[in-house]
What we know:
Glucose Permease (Domain IIA); Membrane-bound Lytic Murein Transglycosylase D, Chain A; 5 helices; alpha+beta; disordered N terminus
Amino acid sequence: MTRLRYFFCGAALLLTLSAGAQVVLPRTKMTLREAEKLVPRLMSQPVPSLGDMSTEVLDTLETQTPGVSILLMADNTWHFWRDPAVAVKGEAFKEAWNTEYASSYNVPLAALPDRINIWVCDRNNQYRCPNRTRVYSPFGTRHHRRHQGVDLPLPKGTPVYAAFSGKVRLSKYYRGYGNLVIIRHENGLETYYAHLSERKVESGQWVEAGTVVGLGGSTGRSSGSHLHFETRFKGYAFDPQWLIDFETGTLRHRLFVLKKSHLDENSRYVPESEEEEVAIYLADTREKAVADSLAAVRKAAEEKAAREAAAARYHTIRSGDTLSSLARRYGTSISAICKLNPGLTPKTTLRLGRKIRVK
Ligand SMILES: [Zn+2]
């Protein structure tokens, strides 16, 4: 009779498998931290962005779940594929479905659970970074205004990708956002893609992760081409950088835990005019320009000091040296020598062996 014992991470769990396939389940109460150790680590691992899909589908296998097939790819990988006609009828697309208004939900904050566990990427759902770049204007209060997303600079006409698969809820020109696409995902998350120069999808359409939803632009006034990207749950915006590292393009984890304590009534706010977005971007541009010029001034000063330090010359006082003889000898003046040596005045007695800077 074989008997296997597994001890997990020091947690008080003992799993015994015997010939009779008897499994003794733990009765110990665990803290959340201990329980988290037992959940597969896969959930907290970063996910790289999909690249351009270039591999061919070799074969399609049906599964027992209606509308779900397995695609065998030419590069020896496989993945699940759902029939869009089936996926589009999912439960998540029935609640507060509105193709006209950006804010469609009307859920009070108190009605949300304290912790909302959202699987953002699993075997059915892939991920692609909407636009890989540094974040120009971050989420949060910017210049006394509420910024509900991140601004990601991109040249006009650059493809913008759907981060995850889902159903397009809204695709129209929208005050505050310019050309806007909102996708609702099966886990209830919504992603917003704003200021597009062109929209490539229509509301009601099913999109896969990596579908081009539009082209980057700067709809409205010319404030620099950028993608304004938002992530919302039940209408409440949260920082997209909690989910995505835009610089590397990776998704930070497969399972995202959104805490209610990180949301407030302001998280529901939807900008009412383009001016707000433009003002945030312009103020950040000005702030960055000021920071850049300050940095340039500081760098120039440091370089000057370094040049002067490299040209510095010292003299060790010997018998008979005076400040005027040193000034003559090194082709400088008494006041210039005093300036180079803090505390030195024309009346200071020069001690033998003292090292003073003369240039
Ligand atoms: Zn923005």
